[in-house]
């Protein structure tokens, strides 16, 4: 990947194929996050599940940007992912946050650094923030109410175990680790998607 740069898309207009790509990749990303998130039912494996989903989705993100590197695509895709999570019981504010961070990720992809090893990981780090942070926002706002809700949904025993594992200091540290892993996942994604970037005329 040394010396490879990413050019600016010749057109920012989304077409029918782009919207199909958005739908397909949205479904893939949601399924992966949700599937690995199921490891949360085993408290000790909760963080491993999140980290694995970040790595796998880093590859998916790179493949997506190679196929649809147009302004607005990431914003739409991220909002759709957050809407799917809201349906499953996540925080509704994540949808608004997704619009902001999706736009920032779009700006990085369309107008960011030319080096693909910088552009894609930076955009991905911004892209994943609302996906992995918004579900925990209620915990920061009212920890007792959040744990009560978990107890109602999952049972008191599960909530008690989760309270031991999921604390605010641990979560803050996890978010920092998440950003670092997100950057590394973006780098991994660029390696896997290199030929796709070349075929799309982006490098």
Summarize the structure in words.
With 203 residues, the protein is mainly alpha-helical. It is 76% helix and 0% strand. It is built from ten helices and no strands. Helix 1 packs antiparallel against helix 2, helix 1 packs across helix 3 and helix 3 runs antiparallel to helix 4. The longest helix is centred in the last third of the chain and has 25 residues. The model has no long low-confidence stretch (mean pLDDT 83).
Number of helices: 10
How many strands? 0
Order of SSEs, N→C? HHHHHHHHHH
Q: Span from first to last CA? A: 10 Å
Strand content is under 5%
- Overall shape: it is elongated
Query: Into which percent range does the helicity of residues fall?
Result: over 70%
- Average of pLDDT: 83
Low-confidence stretches: none
* Rg from Cα: 17 Å
Largest sheet: none
SSE-based structural type: mainly alpha
Question: What attributes does this structure have?
Answer:
76% helix; mainly alpha; 203 residues; 0% strand
Q: Brief description of this entry?
A:
The protein is mostly helical and 203 residues long. Helix content is 76%, strand content 0%.
Give me the secondary-structure topology.
Elements: H1 16-37, H2 46-67, H3 73-87, H4 93-111, H5 116-133, H6 137-141, H7 143-154, H8 156-165, H9 168-192, H10 194-199
């Amino acid at each position: 990947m040394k010396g490879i740069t990413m050019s600016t898309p010749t057109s920012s207009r989304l077409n029918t194929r782009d919207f199909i790509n958005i739908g397909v990749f949205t479904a893939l990303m949601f399924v992966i996050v949700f599937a690995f998130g199921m490891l949360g039912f085993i408290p000790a494996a909760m963080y491993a599940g999140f980290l694995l989903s970040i790595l796998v989705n880093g590859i998916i993100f790179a493949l997506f940007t190679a196929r649809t590197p147009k302004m607005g695509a990431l914003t739409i895709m991220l909002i759709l992912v957050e809407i799917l999570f809201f349906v499953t019981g996540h925080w509704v504010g994540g949808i608004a946050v997704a619009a902001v961070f999706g736009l920032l990720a779009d700006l990085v992809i369309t107008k960011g650094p030319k080096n693909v090893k910088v552009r894609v990981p930076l955009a991905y780090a911004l892209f994943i923030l609302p996906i992995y942070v918004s579900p925990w926002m209620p915990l920061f706002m009212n920890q007792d109410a959040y744990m009560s809700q978990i107890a109602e949904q999952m049972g008191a025993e599960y909530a008690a175990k989760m309270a031991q594992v999921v604390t605010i200091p641990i979560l803050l540290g996890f978010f920092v680790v998440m950003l670092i892993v997100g950057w590394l996942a973006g780098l991994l994604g660029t390696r896997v998607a290199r030929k796709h970037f070349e075929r799309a005329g982006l490098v």
